[in-house]
Prior knowledge:
mainly alpha
Amino acid sequence: MSMWHDEGAWIAMGVSVLFIAAGVIMHFVFIRILKTGATEHEQENHHE
């Protein structure tokens, strides 16, 4: 039986793609946070 006809293989590939997509999205979010730094509101709270 071919791998492409197995329902479990499709579920495993779908979960793998979901985790890869989540990792890529989290990567871009973390990079944006690190590049922009803290917001002005957060900086004001740290100075008090």
